[in-house]
Amino acid sequence: MSVELEALKVAIEEAKKLAKARRFKQSVDLIISYSDLSTKQPEAKINETIELPHVSPERKAKVCVIAEGDLAIKAKEAADAVIGKEELNKAQGDRKYARSLARNFNFFIAQVDLMPLIGRSLGPVLGPRGKMPTPLPGTADPIPLIRKLQNSVRVRIKDSPVVQCSIGSEDMPVDQLAENAKTLIESVEDRLKVPHHIGGVFVKLSMGPAVPVKIEKRRKAA
């Protein structure tokens, strides 16, 4: 089966029409359901970071860098926050603070030699959320990775065979939203290494009804 760009555009336009106007800018969500994917198999579960081709400035993901020294100095140019050992020690004794870090940031990058301390202080709150940091050597340039993560979304298949994540906001052009959706669908397909079958694809605004996307059945080669 395949999902064509035009079918995504049609569904997104319909979702925008059906959603009632709100006093806030709604997100546009993509939902992919799988009809024969058993999440009892560990290999059927994924926790992936996928970069989108179009992201509005106010919708960029928030990235926190955990580092000391040169890496911390470099990261301050682009990261949404930079924390070090002092904050990690605080998180170890203050669960409320640790949970606030996990809640307020989409992605974490960490200096390699701080990973053991991160495991003790933030691991209990980041692990279950699938947000454990991407490690970097202290001599690395963190800017390219920070920029990439700020334009990315996290995609998870955990307890149910469903992917749901934001592809942008309602004020973005339909063409851009459709391209984001297609990128996500194809990226998830590439990352799923077990037999699977897409049962349905839907788009919706955060407070609106889900609209099905037409799925084309691929013809078998003669």
Could you walk me through the main structural features you see in this protein, from its secondary elements to its overall organization?
- The chain is α/β, with parallel strands linked by helices.
- The chain has 2 domains: 5-54 and 153-212, Ribosomal protein L1/L10, rRNA-binding domain (Ribulose 1,5 Bisphosphate Carboxylase/Oxygenase), CATH 3.30.190; 61-149, 3-Layer(aba) Sandwich (Rossmann fold), CATH 3.40.50.
- 35% of the residues lie in helices and 24% in strands.
- The protein has 8 helices and 10 strands.
- It has helices at 5-18, 69-75, 85-93, 95-104, 115-121, 123-126, 143-150, 174-191; strands at 27-34, 46-51, 63-66, 81-83, 107-111, 134-136, 152-157, 162-169, 198-205, 211-212.
- The strands form 3 sheets. The protein has a 4-stranded antiparallel sheet with strand order 8-1-9-10. Strands 4-3-5-6 form a 4-stranded parallel sheet.
- Helix 3 packs across helix 4 (95-104) and helix 3 runs parallel beside helix 5.
- It is globular and about 50 Å long.
- The two termini are 17 Å apart.
- The mean pLDDT is 92.
Quick structural summary:
The protein has 222 residues and is an alpha/beta fold.
User: Major sheet: size, sense and barrel closure?
Assistant: 4 strands, antiparallel
Report the uncertain regions: none
Evaluate the radius of gyration.
Answer: 19 Å
Pattern of helices and strands? HEEEHEHHEHHEHEEHEE
Q: Quick one: CATH superfamily of the largest domain?
A: Ribosomal protein L1/L10, rRNA-binding domain
**Could you give the count of β-strands?**
10
**C-alpha end-to-end distance:** 17 Å
